[in-house]
Amino acid sequence: MNKKLYLLDAMALIYRAYYALIRNPILSSKGKNTNAQFGFTNTLFDLINKEKPTHIAVCFDTHAPTERHTDFANYKANRQEVPEDLLASLDDIKRIIRGFNIPVIEHDGYEADDVIGTLAWQAAAAGFEVYMVTPDKDYGQLLTHEGVYIYKPGYMGSPAEKLDAKKITEKWGIENVTQVIDMLGLMGDAVDNIPGIAGIGEKTASKLLKEYGTLENILENAATIKGALGEKIRNGREQAILSKKLATIITHVPTQFHEEHFQLKEWNTQELTEIFAE
Fold it and tell me: Would you give the end-to-end CA distance of the chain in angstroms?
């Protein structure tokens, strides 16, 4: 039997769960919104029952600033304030995860995707098949290691997707997954407020990378690129370099994959019964 590790990007999944039910919120008898708790638990049940992981962990962001915030004060600054009832769900969700006897992993100074990237590569090197459970597109850059995949849970009736390096390159119109960060450096990412080069979108970014290979090579040849496009690239040089750095997932977080710690265990049914009753 293959050893399969599933690493869940907690906040991305929690946001999706909360907003999927925003028009018809699920309220407890005390009027508490439980959209996020319900949706996240469903995702966990689906994964465990359908995908049969042998190992699993859930990774969270922390409130501590990261290197990205130091480099760019406006990193993620465009995000709306988190709704109070979503924030209030986090303690419940961590209790639910621990009730399933699943480890919660978080590290100050790093985002969940950095933690997941680090653990995914360590586990792949140890012979695991690794699925990063997330809807976020920037994880594609991590599929350079054999045995590492993205698992995108189903949403609003759509089926779950398993993405490998080939699917990522086809989706982005690039030659290899290392160019995902070059794409984001060029076109930016509105979700994380990564600026990119003003006026360059996905199609233009893909076309430039087909011709020049890397962001650095595009910038090096900016003087020879004619017309308005060349001008945009020359004017956006600093933003592009910064954007590529912001989009690069860190894979040297001080965390360690321990096989026995991540192994799927018996659930703590008493703990789960209490929280589900609440």
Answer: 38
pTM score above 0.90: yes
CB atoms under 10 Å from CB of 203, counted, come to 10
Residue 63, CA distances (Å) to 39, 46, 108, 110, 139 in order: 23, 29, 8, 10, 21
| Angle, alpha carbons 134-137-141 (nearest 5°) | 100
The pLDDT tens digits for 31-56 are: 999 999 999 999 999 999 999 999 99
Query: How remote is the C-alpha of 150 from its chain's centroid?
Result: 9
- Residues ≥6 apart with Cβ < 8 Å to 68: 75, 111, 246
Question: Edge-to-edge, what's the strand order for the sheet holding 129-133?
Answer: 104-105, 55-59, 4-9, 129-133, 148-152, 161-163
Please list, in sequence order, all residues whose beta carbon lies within 8 angstroms of the beta carbon of residue 2, skipping any fewer than 6 positions away: 54, 129
Distance CA 83, CA 37 (A): 14
